[in-house]
Amino acid sequence: MVSLDSPITMIRPSVIEFGVGTAERLGKWADDKGYARILVISDAFNATRVDSLALKGDVTVFADVTPEPDTANLDKVLAAANAADAQLVVGFGGGSAMDLAKLAAVLAGSQQTLHEVVGPNKVHGPRRVALAQVPTTAGTGSEAGIRALVTDPKTMAKLAVESIHMLADIAVIDPALTFTVPARTTAATGVDAMAHCVEAFTNRKAHPMVDLYAIEGTRLVGKYLARAVKDGADAEARAGLSLASLYGGFCLGPVNTAGGHALAYPLGTRWHVAHGAANALIFPHVLAFNTPSVPEKTRAVMDALDRKASEDVKSVFEAAYSFCADLGIEMKLSALGVPDSDLDAMADDAFAIRRLLDNNPRDLSRADIRSIYQAAF
User: Fold this and answer.
1) Alpha helices in 95-156 (DSSP H)
2) Residue 41 contacts residue 65 (beta carbons within 8 Å)
3) pLDDT above 70 coverage of the chain, percent
4) pTM value > 0.70
5) Is the pLDDT of residue 201 over 90?
6) Helix, strand, or coil here: 86?
7) In the chain, what are the helix, strand and coil shares in percent, each to the nearest 5?
């Protein structure tokens, strides 16, 4: 862990609207800015409720965002963005829609290609168009971040772009937009938000300035996730999760995730397991594995989740596993359609994600990763 006097940079959207009923504020903001040509990037469901954003002018809706989007999906988005010649791009949906909106905002009309900007700080600025983010799930925290991920179908690897030029000008977080999220998805995305917080909190790059958001985000999930799963219209619970997701997004910028996300990614790229579900399944295994290296922080995590556990690895695993399983989350790879024959390839893929594994508080060897997959099978 880094020390209190270590340098850190915190960035976030300059305008954040938060609370039930705030979705329509985007329209007034855009109108005040004079944006007449607007492109909304969304999935098919959320495309049916773009009216809730109260946008005016020439509004084009791209409604074909796919879960775990790949480069082909991005190509379609960029074609739509170039055709619309938008002054404002709006990401309206889950992390997939928001990530594609980030990339559209910096690549549409640009001389740069996706492969030229993969990695940190390779996007040429300044951005030509404005960017707004409106999440409809409480999990990714993508509305607050500067990273975007798409899958390369040839290599089955996530291509990660990081740039300050992908930071939203405004993030509108209306928990009411999450009321319709099904219980199973609510559970998985809620654990994803928690995983962002926990992985940042226990990270080798962990910093006290980020720890504040990380542990509070974890506490909010511990307090409100089960309530939201039980009653999707519980406004307070939904707001608590939306705030936890936002805090997780704050953690991603300066610190980022670690081993848990590295092991979860191959489930999505190879077997199209939803990102939240993949993280939830992996979460207790990696938390327990890391416990010997960060015992005090692990104890703080379990306290935040209101789960009793000693610093023993087995105790931590059982407590974290039950937290996820009690929410109705599927906790076995075999039940998600992942074959035993693919575990070796998945271990190879995960072990190659050094940008995350190098953050993990305890070294994860390729054999460790393979063992975790086997234990989760």
Assistant:
1) 95-107, 114-117
2) yes
3) 100
4) yes
5) yes
6) coil
7) 55, 10, 35
134 forms beta bridges with 92
- Map residue 158 onto helix, strand or coil: strand
Cβ count near 327 (within 10 Å): 20
Beta bridge partners of 131: 89
Residue 19 scores a pLDDT above 80? yes
Alpha-carbon span 224 to 231, nearest angstrom: 11
Cis peptide preceding 126, ω within 30 of 0: yes
3-state secondary structure of 62: strand
Alpha helices for the chain (secondary structure H)? 25-33, 44-47, 71-84, 95-107, 114-117, 183-201, 208-230, 235-252, 259-271, 275-290, 295-304, 313-325, 343-351, 354-357, 366-376
* pLDDT tens, position by position, 23-78: 999 999 999 999 999 999 999 999 999 999 999 999 999 999 998 899 999 999 99
Backbone angles phi, psi at 148, to 5 degrees: -140, 140
Q: Could you tell me how far CA 221 lies from the centroid of its own chain?
A: 15
Separation between Cα atoms, residue 61 and residue 9, nearest integer Å: 34
Strand order in the sheet with 157-162: 119-120, 157-162, 147-152
